[in-house]
Amino acid sequence: MKTVLIVDDEEKILEVVSSYLRNEGYRTIETSTGQEALQYIRKRHIDFVILDLMLPDYSGEDICQSIRQETSLPILMLTAKAKETERIKGLSLGADDYMVKPFSPRELVMRVKTILRRSNDNDLLAEQISYNQGELIVNAKSKEVFSKGNSISLTPIEYKALLFFARHPKRTFTRDELVEKVLGYDYEGETRTIDQHIKNLRQKIENNPKEPRYIQTVFGMGYKFEGNRNEN
To answer: What residue stretches are annotated with the Response regulatory domain (predicted)?
Structure first.
């Protein structure tokens, strides 16, 4: 049974979201503060975090950053901020997805299921693949990624995207194709969301994100993965 931590200072939202998730077989933990949320994450086994941006003690952005420094737990942000810049900011901090209030509890449950399904993808392309003489290493068995010998922390979506690209080198994918393959066929958010996830991934694996060697933009079409591959 998966455990979902719900962080929101609106009691009604805690009650409704918790009820819908429990009806779908999830265990839930509810809290209204960022500080308590971090304590739960450090002391309890948590599989998923639903995080409101407006909390009484810390901002959701700060909590998201703190979580990302410690773990790659999937994070779904809840926000009353409908502006595109605000949503992109949340994704750039490492959130896997976002929903704008008011939202459908049924859709929220669907998104939780979709993100968890992506996070639990165990398909292997090889136990380990390295690129450019070991500069970039993807260990699909342990789900670890190394850049220049250093372990790098990827969000579930970033890891899923990198693994998908690595399985299909030198092939160009449109944004719609990447949304379906990485975010899931039932994803109903904006297609441009994939751009932010790729930008985040580039920041972590590229020497110069503005001149990427691995994930390259194919103008007018989408993205493709390059790199000189050496299998171990």
So the answer is: 3-116
- Could you list the residue range(s) of the whole structural domain that residue 30 is in? 3-119
Question: What band does 109 get if pLDDT is binned at 50, 70 and 90?
Answer: very high
Q: What is the length of the chain?
A: 232
**Full-model pTM:** 0.59
- The CATH number of residue 49's host domain is 3.40.50.2300
Position 123 scores a pLDDT of 42
pLDDT number for residue 119: 63
Same domain for 166 and 204, yes or no, is yes
In a domain, 124, yes or no: no
With bands split at pLDDT 50, 70 and 90, how would you rate the model's confidence at 83?
low
Same domain, 56 and 139: no
Query: Higher model confidence: residue 202 or residue 54?
Result: 202
Give every strand in the sheet of 3-7, ordered side by side: 27-31, 3-7, 48-52, 75-79, 97-100
Q: Structurally, how many domains does the chain consist of?
A: 2
Nearest to 206 by CA among 144, 141, 131: 131
Q: Which residue has the tokens 């409908």?
A: 82
